[in-house]
Amino acid sequence: MHDESGTKQDFTGASKYILDEELAKIVNISIALEMPILIKGEPGTGKTMLAHAIAESLNMRLIVLNVKSSMKLVEALYQYDTLTRLNDSRFGDSTRTVSNIEEYIKMGKIGQSFISDERVVLLIDEIDKADTDFQDDMLDVLDQMEFDLIEIDKTIKAKYRPVIIITSNAKKDLSDPFLGRCNFHHIAFPEPDLMRKIIQVHFTDIDKALLDHSIKAFYRMREFRGIEKKPATRELINWIRAMKADPDFKVKDLAKGDILFPGVLFKKSSDYDIAQHSVPRITS
Questions:
Q1: What is the pLDDT of residue 98?
Q2: Whole-number mean pLDDT of the chain?
């Protein structure tokens, strides 16, 4: 990618995002080829944060489309506010011109990325929640970089092609046509050595003993049998934050197997119960 001066810009990470070489390459290739990049991985692996990091690194605005299971593509493109127009025509106390339908059209997240006066990063988060028609029709729009406002017979064309990041939790298979039109990368859950670097970015002055024992306990707890929602990176960060904020906390308690604030790590009742019954295994 090139900035306004023509200087080539590469994504190399951000202040709070540790980037591996393979991910950096696929991101920069996707930007150069102007192709969407599909990021898969379990919750908490940094898929959403990647888009934030790209926007920060390249000094671009981030627009986020949070996909819902019931969402229709048109909602992501634009909304025509018929109710407000009806009220304006009925009561006649609005500054809008009722006969001008365009005044009642509001751009959705994809529409906003198209009409932006500068290139933006467009994050389409959790695409696997949408049905197949939504997925394929959305990529048609993103390929063509245009869509129609049916109500006023007008075509909206993108001023700049956004940098498109699409995330999936891999809960549902995506169609072959969808996969064929994206570059793909799977973000594996960080190994302990990488997690150590991530934690040190968030806690630059963290005590070595706290770092060592919290990471050791965290990875053992992720392996508790029967856990439905394993604690992810954000839970580890919040867990360390909670321990550091507790004036009575002592690292030696963590070292001997005590687990403080299990509710920070485990968000489902069944997982919480499993963790409480499994805590003695931490010291084994």
A1: 77
A2: 87
> Residue 274 and residue 117: Cα distance in Å, rounded?
52
Domain boundaries, the chain: 21-186, 192-283
pLDDT level of residue 99 (50, 70, 90 thresholds): confident
Q: Give the count of beta carbons closer than 10 Å to the beta carbon of residue 282.
A: 19
How many CB atoms neighbour CB 20 within 10 A?
13
Using CA atoms of 250, 256, 261, 267 in order, give the dihedral in degrees to the nearest 10: 150
Q: Is residue 11 within 8 Å of residue 58, measured between CB atoms? A: yes
Instruction: Please state, in angstroms and rounded to a whole number, the distance separating the CA atoms of residues 178 and 137.
Output: 9
Between CA 117 and CA 49 the distance in angstroms is 24
The answer on pLDDT for 112 being more than 50 is: yes
106 in Cβ contact with 78 (< 8 Å)? yes
Retrieve residue 157's tokens: 């064309």
Question: Can you tell me the distance from the alpha carbon of 129 to that of 7, in angstroms, rounded to the nearest whole number?
Answer: 38
What is the phi-psi region of residue 160: left when phi exceeds 0, alpha when psi lies from -120 to 50, beta otherwise? Answer: beta
172-197 pLDDT, tens per residue?
778 888 888 899 999 888 899 989 99
Q: Distance (Å, rounded) from C-alpha 36 to C-alpha 248?
A: 48
Structure tokens given for 143:
């390929």
Residue 2, pLDDT > 60, answer no
Q: Which of 77, 76, 65, 248 is CA-nearest to residue 155?
A: 77
Q: Are 175 and 136 in contact, with CB atoms under 8 Å apart?
A: yes
Dist. CA 128–CA 143, nearest whole Å? 19
State the pLDDT at residue 283. Answer: 39
Pull the structure tokens for residue 284: 């084994």
Q: What is the CATH number of domain 21-186?
A: 3.40.50.300
Instruction: Please tell me the distance from the alpha carbon of residue 149 to that of residue 153, in angstroms, as a whole number.
Output: 6
